[in-house]
Design brief:
61% of the residues lie in helices and 8% in strands. The strands form 3 sheets. Strands 10-6-5-11-12-14-13-15 form an 8-stranded mixed β-sheet, sandwiched between helices. The longest helix has 56 residues. The chain is globular and about 100 Å long.
């Protein structure tokens, strides 16, 4: 009794100390997220950016938080100077974070030794090793992070009445700091300071926080939990009114539901991150969009917990409040897929600057964040509101405050780990994104059912009714959308498009879309990466044929980075001297779509189950697979498909091997040496593509090629400002001083090739001819108009002689300073950068003849003039392509005609003058029966007019008349009420075009008829 009466009164922080403590915990949350982003980048550059590596980072990070909150939480109640302990924790976090990159580098020999003894062939086991290493390295700093919340809860909470406000306020502050950390890292720190300096800044802030907390905590001695309990018993604090229906049993059950709440939260984050980008007009799958989405997610948590912490200690019926939060979360979460698909207008202007072509960057970011907030703002707000309520329910005494808070936080974090893993690895790949969200909503409804079942106001007899209601609601939200995810695709189709394949895989959502022209494109997270149209076919085929032709077809081992549509993989199989053909692809969902893109890959891989089905159905073994085979080399008999590659798929070529892994990781640890390494990538704006264009990646490629080997890199011309493009060139030049640049003018291509070699590139014309002796190779090249040796050689643009005068001095793109990743999304969402970047390279063009080592070879000597003419014409063709992309088709035609005058033997120019894309588009519109009520009608009329002008410029009067007449016949009478000024202009233009055609053909009477008709359209005005 005397102990209770002598119990000390609880201390007070005071306003000044309280503000300092709040600021320290706020910035502690900010630095934690800086570390998480930085650690993720460091781990993925060493272990690979596969889904397993990324999930490993997240699991290790959150596992450490859970372990720290649980271990330290049990001891926090005995602390007398918790602020000092918090300060020591922050300093420990800083030191552990500074040591992390050095420790990570030290593990490289261990991983390399495993890889050399079979890790390459056991991908799952290798991924498990990555997990163990990452978890061990991150355990110390993340465990210390997890300890900070229970320790700080002990430091600021002395009144059981204020548990919700104190703990909820800390959670809100820490989460708000996390918002700052994500935003600052994603939008500022990495771009301007790089990875290591960002770590130094965060560590410096943590050390400053730690020193400040130690100094502040030295003079602030707080009672232990037991002493605070004595204070309560001595009635130095007013008695606390017990919340309704909260017994120790109820508190334990509520704490258990918070595990599932954490599961739902992180699983939602995975699903939303995978689906929200489909609703963005620009930025899409960029670093900025992911940073923006995560910022909104954390901001919702912070605001929700801040709102609730202000009122939670005044809520008497906490069970009802918790149940209401979960009910609203279930409803709002289930509605998010429909909000993502909704056609929401833009709220900020995203137009590119007329002078520079740069995107309105902050307008685009604003649209990303606002659209994200409209979709997930309410659910994340409710998630944040739940923590203070659960903390207030669970914490039963001040004597166990640290233990209880640590337990709640640890349990929720463990649920989050399970949610992140199962969401990414199991639920989404198995049932799709929308059904996964339905499952999560059902789990949340189940939480509501449990909580309401515990509430004393709910009679036992009504609890079965609640269970039935739950089953019905679950049926609405799950079974209504379960099944085939393609029934509810996030990839929106435009007019004339058809969804061929759709797969929401573990790492990416892959769609195959067929347009009205019959061409197919494969999209990864709504970004087109490859396809069957002539431009994309040129893309993939050139990556194989150009290096192989330069090597005389005598490469023994080749590696293509990126499967795409499989076109490059197929083209390599045409060279008989190649012994090993490897293709590495990070997203297993991409090669699974190969059977829908056989026009590009000719069946290089095919599902085993489909092969077995054909055999069981009696399909002839010597006949090709139905649907494959436009030309002789692609007509592979069914009997050839006996060679397994990966993903339960077969190939017709025993030399071919498909590797599912990250390219950097593979090149880092493999000891295989290649004669060709060809990197095919999508635009550098998207995802982590830019890390295949940094200094370290190019160095990895150089180490893995033979002495005569070639490194070929697909480089986009779009999406890069002049500064960014120079950085890419400068970075490649730093590794391959004798680099060369190639551009293929056979189509309006949007990329160029960089080719690097350990020594300077020298071209043997005899080798080129030898490589092209194979008819199968010529047939494959003929599909893209590049079968002539002179045409391939003349695609050379420049080498170090011209490049050195172009790039100048400046920064490089490196792992530590990933400049391109942050510069590229801000620029070039129109066609201007293509013309500007390639135009500057043509300004420093040099003759390819200087690189030919056998100029006196009979064929080389005979083709010398042709090679020079083709190379000169390519510059003019490129200018025509620039006009083509701006829809100035007549100007494009004039450039093509000028190029043809220089190189009349170039068959690819004749193909360009056919304007096949426009003709196919018009044929599709005619077949579709386009009429004036269709919004595509005016577009089709305009294209018909442009194509007619193009044929008129070529003197092809009959083709012009044939093209225009069907569309002119669909025009309404000039006096029809639905005729608009635009329709009048088109009607008059079509008639005048036909008049010019007949005049040129010498039929003046017919020409006069169309001129009079044109005047009728003018008279209507």
């Amino acid at each position: 009794m005397s102990d209770a009466s002598n119990a000390p009164a609880p201390p007070r922080l005071g306003l000044a100390r309280g503000v300092l403590v709040a600021l320290m915990f706020f910035f502690s949350g900010a630095t934690a997220l800086v570390y998480e982003v930085v650690w993720t980048r460091q781990l993925t550059t060493v272990f690979g950016a596969t889904v397993y590596a990324v999930a490993t980072v997240l699991t290790a990070f959150m596992g450490g938080l859970a372990l720290g909150s649980w271990l330290i939480g049990k001891r926090a109640d005995r602390l007398r100077r918790p602020l000092m302990v918090f300060g020591l924790l922050e300093i420990g976090i800083a030191l552990g974070s500074l040591a992390f990159p050095f420790l990570l580098r030290a593990t490289t020999p261990i991983v390399g030794a495993f890889y050399a003894t079979g890790g390459e062939g056991t991908f799952f086991v290798f991924s498990l090793l990555r997990f163990v290493i990452a978890f061990a390295l991150l355990m110390v700093p993340t465990t210390l992070m997890g300890a900070t919340l229970p320790v700080m809860s002990r430091a600021v909470t002395y009144d059981l009445r204020a548990v919700g406000r104190g703990v909820g306020g800390l959670y809100a502050l820490n989460t708000a700091g996390a918002v700052l950390g994500v935003f600052a890292t994603g939008f500022f720190l990495l771009e301007h300071f790089g990875v290591w300096r960002s770590t130094l800044l965060a560590a410096s802030a943590d050390i400053a926080i730690g020193i400040g907390a130690i100094l502040l905590g030295w003079s602030l001695r707080v009672p232990t939990g037991e002493e605070l309990e004595q204070t309560v018993r001595a009635k130095l604090l007013p008695p606390l009114a017990q919340p309704v229906g909260i017994s120790p049993r109820v508190a334990r059950i509520v704490m258990g539901t918070y595990f599932f709440s954490g599961f739902v939260a992180l699983c939602y984050q995975v699903a939303w991150t995978r689906s929200l980008l489909f609703g963005f007009e620009t930025l899409k799958a960029t670093t900025y969009s992911f940073a923006g989405m995560l910022t909104v997610f954390l901001l919702g948590l912070a605001i929700g917990s801040a709102i609730m912490q202000a009122v939670v200690d005044r809520i008497r019926d906490l069970l009802m409040a918790y149940g209401a939060i979960q009910l609203l979360l279930a409803i709002s979460g289930a509605l998010t897929p429909f909000l993502i698909r909704a056609d929401m207008p833009l709220f900020f202007v995203e137009l590119a600057d007329d002078n520079s072509g740069a995107l309105n960057y902050w307008g685009a970011i604003g649209n990303v964040m606002l659209r994200t907030a409209l979709v997930i703002g309410l659910p994340t707000l409710l998630m944040g509101m739940a923590f203070p309520v659960v903390a207030r329910i669970v914490v039963g005494s001040l004597g166990h405050l640290g233990r209880d808070v640590g337990g709640v936080y640890a349990l929720n974090t463990c649920g989050a780990i399970a949610g992140a893993f199962l969401g990414g690895f199991v639920l989404i790949p198995t049932i799709g994104i929308t059904p996964t969200i339905g499952v999560l909503a059902s789990i949340t409804f189940a939480i509501v059912l449990v909580v309401m079942g515990l509430h004393p106001a709910v009679p036992r007899g009504r609890r079965p009714v609640l269970a039935v209601a739950f089953v019905l609601v679950a049926g609405i939200f799950v079974f209504r959308v379960a099944g085939d995810p393609s029934r509810y695709p996030f990839h929106a189709l435009t007019v004339g498009e058809r969804l061929i394949a759709y797969d929401e895989g573990s790492l990416a959502t892959v769609s195959v879309i067929e347009d009205s022209k019959g061409w197919r494109t494969i999209y990864v997270d709504a970004v087109g990466v490859a396809g069957t149209d002539p431009v994309l076919q040129t893309d993939q085929k050139s990556l194989a044929h150009v290096p192989m032709v330069l090597l005389g077809g005598r490469a023994e081992s080749v590696l293509t980075v990126g499967f795409g549509s499989g076109g490059a993989s197929y083209s390599y199989t045409l060279y008989p001297e190649v012994r090993n053909i490897h293709a590495i692809e990070i997203t297993s969902t991409v090669p699974k779509a190969a059977p829908t893109l056989t026009d590009a890959n000719h069946g290089i891989v095919y599902p085993r189950r489909e092969i077995e089905r054909l055999r069981a159905a009696g399909h002839p073994a010597d006949a090709p697979i139905p649907g494959i085979g436009r030309s002789a080399p692609s007509a592979r008999p069914l009997a050839d498909y006996v060679h397994p590659v990966a993903l339960d798929m077969l190939t017709f070529d025993p030399r071919y091997r498909l590797i599912i892994d990250d390219a950097r990781s593979y090149l880092h640890f493999t000891d295989t040496v290649y004669d060709v390494i060809a990197t095919d990538c999508t635009d550098l704006r998207y995802k982590s593509n830019a890390n295949l264009y940094d200094l370290e990646y190019f160095e990895l490629c150089r180490r893995r090629i033979s002495d005569r080997g070639l490194v070929v890199v697909w480089v986009p011309l779009a999406g890069l400002s002049d500064e960014a493009f120079r950085i890419v060139v400068r970075t490649f030049r730093a590794v391959f001083p004798d680099m060369t640049v190639w551009y293929f003018a056979n189509q309006p291509t949007h990329y160029c090739l960089f080719i690097g070699q350990k020594g300077g590139l020298r071209i043997s014309y005899a080798d080129v001819l030898a490589a092209l002796e194979n008819n199968a190779i010529l047939d494959d090249l003929d599909e893209i108009g590049l079968r002539e040796p002179a045409k391939i050689v003349s695609s050379f643009v420049t080498d170090q002689r011209g490049i050195d005068t172009y790039i100048g001095d400046g920064p490089l793109n490196t792992e530590d300073f990933p400049i391109i990743e942050f510069l590229s999304p801000r620029y070039g969402y129109d066609s201007r950068p293509i013309a500007e970047n390639m135009g500057r390279l043509y300004d420093v063009q040099v003759p390819v003849w200087d690189l030919i080592v056998d100029p006196h070879h009979e064929a080389a000597h005979a083709d010398r003039a042709r090679i020079a003419a083709y190379q000169q014409a390519n510059d003019i063709l490129f200018q025509g392509h620039a006009e083509y992309r701006l829809f100035n088709f007549v100007e494009a035609c004039r450039h093509y005609l000028a190029a043809l005058a220089i190189a009349p033997e170039d068959e690819s120019i004749q193909r360009l003058l056919e304007f096949d894309e426009l003709r196919l588009l018009l044929d599709a519109e005619l077949e579709r029966g386009v009429h004036m009520a269709d919004h595509q009608w005016l577009n089709a009329q305009w294209i018909a007019h442009q194509l007619g002008l193009v044929f008129l410029a070529q003197g092809r009067h009959s083709d012009a008349v044939t093209t225009v007449t069907p569309f002119l016949r669909r025009m309404p009478p000039p006096s029809a009420p639905q005729v608009t000024p635009t329709i009048r202009d088109i009607g008059r233009a079509l008639n005048l075009l036909l008049a010019d055609c007949y005049t040129a053909a010498g039929n003046n009477a017919r020409a006069e008829e169309f001129r009079r008709a044109a005047e009728q359209w003018r008279a209507v005005e």
